[in-house]
C-alpha cells in the first residue's frame, strides 16, 4: 500500500513543499535513513557547512530538527531529502522522508549511457556540493533510452569522465581503485568520502576510453551504497566484480 511521505518546513509538518525552482541558491542533501538514524550524517553536515549558504545557527537548527525527525521516521529504511536556501528572500529549509524501495540493481548491476550534455568546467576549488540548479542533469536525463537499471554518464566540457546522474564512479584497474577527479566540477559524494577512509583509491583525470579499460566498474551514493556497473552502452560490458561485492559487504557490515 502506498504511503504518503512525511514533509516538514523548518521542522514543522506540512502538506506541501515549495518547488525546487522556488529556492534561490538552494542546495540539496539526499540521505539514507536507516533504523531511524542517518549513518552518514557527519559527512552530510560537513558538506552543508562548506557550501557557505547557511550560518552556524541555521546549521544547528537543521541538525537538531533533522535528527529528531528521522528518529520518528515510520519506515525502517527511508530516503531523506533535505533542501536549504532562500525562498522569497527568507532563509528556508525543508525535509521530506519517504520509504526506500529496494531494487535488484545492487545484485544484477546497472548500465551507463554516455550523455552528450556535459558539465561546465569550474575552478580547481570546486566545493562539490549538490545544488538545486539541475538544468544540465535534467537535460542529460532526457537523453536516456528507455530501460531498467540505467544511469547517465556525465563528462565535463573537455571530455573527462566526472560522475553519473546520481552517483560517483569507482573503477578497478589491476589491484587498485581509481575515481575521476572532481577538482573542476562534480559532486563530492558522501559515500565516496566514507569509502576513502576504508579503502585506498586514487583520484585521476580519466577519459571515457580509459574508463572502459577498467577491470571492474562500480557506482556509489549515500542512498544505494555501491552498485555494480555491467555496461557502458556502446563501449564495453563487464561481469559483476569480486572487488565490487567486497565494497557492498563492507557497507552492509559497517553502515546498514
In brief:
By secondary structure, the chain is an alpha+beta fold.
Chain oligomer state: single chain
Calculate the mean pLDDT score and round it: 95
Rg result: 18 Å
Number of helices: 7
Q: Provide the structure class.
A: alpha+beta
Structure description:
With 256 residues, this protein is of the alpha+beta class. It is built from seven helices and 14 strands. It has helices at 41-51, 56-71, 105-108, 135-143, 190-196, 208-211, 242-254, and strands at residues 6-9, 12-13, 23-34, 77-87, 90-99, 110-114, 150-155, 161-164, 168-173, 176-180, 201-204, 216-221, 225-232, 236-237. The strands form two sheets. Strands 6, 7, 8, 9, 10, 11, 12, 13 and 14 form a nine-stranded mixed β-sheet that branches. Strands 2-1-5-4-3 form a five-stranded antiparallel β-sheet, covered by helices on one side. β1 (6-9) and β2 (12-13) form a beta hairpin. It is globular, with a radius of gyration of 18 Å.
Topology (SSEs and partners):
Blueprint: E1 6-9, E2 12-13, E3 23-34, H1 41-51, H2 56-71, E4 77-87, E5 90-99, H3 105-108, E6 110-114, H4 135-143, E7 150-155, E8 161-164, E9 168-173, E10 176-180, H5 190-196, E11 201-204, H6 208-211, E12 216-221, E13 225-232, E14 236-237, H7 242-254
Parallel strand pairs: 6-7, 6-13, 10-11
Antiparallel strand pairs: 1-2, 1-5, 3-4, 4-5, 7-8, 9-10, 9-12, 12-13, 13-14
Amino acid at each position: 500500500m502506498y504511503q504518503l511521505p512525511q514533509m516538514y518546513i523548518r521542522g514543522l509538518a506540512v502538506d506541501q513543499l515549495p518547488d525546487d525552482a522556488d529556492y534561490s541558491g538552494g542546495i540539496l542533501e539526499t540521505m539514507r535513513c536507516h533504523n531511524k538514524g542517518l549513518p552518514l550524517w557527519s559527512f552530510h553536515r560537513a558538506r552543508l557547512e562548506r557550501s557557505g549558504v547557511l550560518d552556524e545557527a541555521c546549521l544547528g537548527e537543521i541538525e537538531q530538527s533533522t535528527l529528531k525527525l528521522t528518529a520518528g521516521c515510520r519506515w525502517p529504511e527511508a530516503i531523506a531529502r533535505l533542501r536549504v536556501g532562500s525562498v522569497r528572500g527568507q532563509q528556508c529549509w525543508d525535509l521530506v522522508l519517504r520509504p526506500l524501495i529496494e531494487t535488484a540493481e545492487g545484485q544484477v548491476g546497472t548500465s551507463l549511457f554516455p550523455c552528450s550534455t556535459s558539465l561546465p568546467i569550474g575552478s580547481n576549488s570546486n566545493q562539490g556540493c549538490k545544488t538545486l540548479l539541475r538544468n544540465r542533469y535534467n537535460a542529460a536525463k532526457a537523453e536516456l533510452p528507455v530501460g531498467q537499471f540505467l544511469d547517465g554518464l556525465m563528462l565535463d566540457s573537455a571530455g573527462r569522465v566526472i560522475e553519473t546522474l546520481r552517483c560517483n564512479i569507482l573503477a578497478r584497474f589491476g589491484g587498485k581503485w581509481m575515481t575521476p577527479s572532481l577538482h573542476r566540477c562534480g559532486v563530492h559524494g558522501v559515500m565516496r568520502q566514507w569509502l576513502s577512509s576504508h579503502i585506498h583509491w586514487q583520484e585521476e583525470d580519466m577519459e571515457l576510453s580509459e574508463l572502459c579499460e577498467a577491470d571492474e566498474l562500480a557506482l556509489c551514493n549515500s542512498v544505494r551504497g555501491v552498485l555494480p556497473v555491467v555496461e557502458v552502452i556502446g563501449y564495453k560490458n563487464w561481469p559483476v566484480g569480486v572487488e565490487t561485492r567486497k565494497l557492498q559487504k563492507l557497507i552492509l557490515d559497517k553502515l546498514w
